[in-house]
Amino acid sequence: MVISLFRRKTSVSSKPQSSSVKGKILRRGFGGSRLFAPLTPLPKLACDLFLLSVRIALVILLSTARLVVPPSKKSLLGETVLVIVTRELALTITGAGHGIGRELAMQLAALGCVVVCWDTDVEANRDTMSIISKDGGEVHGFVVDVSKRVEVREAAKLMRKAGIPDVSILINNAAILMHQPFLEHKDEDIQKIFDVNVLSQFWTLQAFLPAMLQNKKGHIVSMCSMCGFYGVVNKVPYCSSKFAIRGLVEGLHEELRLAADSSNINFTTVYPFYADTGLAKDPKYRFPYIFGAVSPKYAAGEVIRAIQRNYEECSIPRCLLYLDVINRVLPKRAMRLIIDFLANVKR
């Protein structure tokens, strides 16, 4: 069941082919018209390769320049932002009305966004809404279990009936983490992890992406994890769900990139290391000033910065994104040595 909380607003078919037809198709293909298509002429191939090399070089130069001079920030004033704030630990709700979800809602409201909060915790959601309303922001709240497709669709309908503007920024922040050896996980726990961490993003995308495409405007933010880059001991289901999120976002991004009239749909995948949200304990890695836990306030600020600059990927801290580049280049054994060194593990 979806519960709408109080609303605070201030002034501010084809037929099977016969064997004879199939035979004709096979013979025609074997004759060279399709199966043995003529090769690209060498001069044209050389020209295409040259143009490709030039374009790659330009992209590398532009990307390098962006490291020094980042893109300008876009205004978020008036945007309607849906923040999925549910965070759970060991399948017990800790309230997402705190943590990164609450900080995102408050900071986005301060930037002039219309904020919609979805949470499974009624009281935590009310508290978040109360804080935003007192500061003069516009906020709406709904109690929704995003792992259930029916509730997601029902909540989307309630939002339209309430006159809430179409969602232009969707932030999928729901997550469950269980820390224990793989064989100790119960079947229902693994199912729940994937329902909340992965399938919930499918349901919210199905509910809100059509309006973004119709309006030719939208931004989809998926909270992933550094566990989406590397497998981590005692977090096998969680890591698997985060790898799945990467596949979902990259696949959908490519699909829309090649589609017509979808160039204004932006994607941002966020890879936090450890945020002090109660979802996981600080792992006590070496170099704590780089690998230590960060506050939810700082993490939310980094997410908003990535949204404003239309970054496709963002890690928290920022430097950790380059570890994925190293991971793709180095042999697996070499990367494991680096990870063991950082974790102060002796083998």
TrEMBL record:
Entry GO MF terms: all-trans-retinol dehydrogenase (NADP+) activity
Matches recorded under PROSITE patterns: ADH_SHORT
Pfam families tied to this protein: adh_short (PF00106)
SUPFAM superfamilies tied to this protein: NAD(P)-binding Rossmann-fold domains
The species this protein was found in: Trichomalopsis sarcophagae
InterPro entries: NAD(P)-bd_dom_sf, Sc_DH/Rdtase_CS, SDR_fam
Keywords, ordered alphabetically: Lipid metabolism, Membrane, NADP, Oxidoreductase, Transmembrane, Transmembrane helix
Family affiliation: Belongs to the short-chain dehydrogenases/reductases (SDR) family.
Role this protein plays: Catalyzes the reduction of all-trans-retinal to all-trans-retinol in the presence of NADPH.
Protein name: Short-chain dehydrogenase/reductase 3
GO cellular component terms given for this protein: lipid droplet; membrane
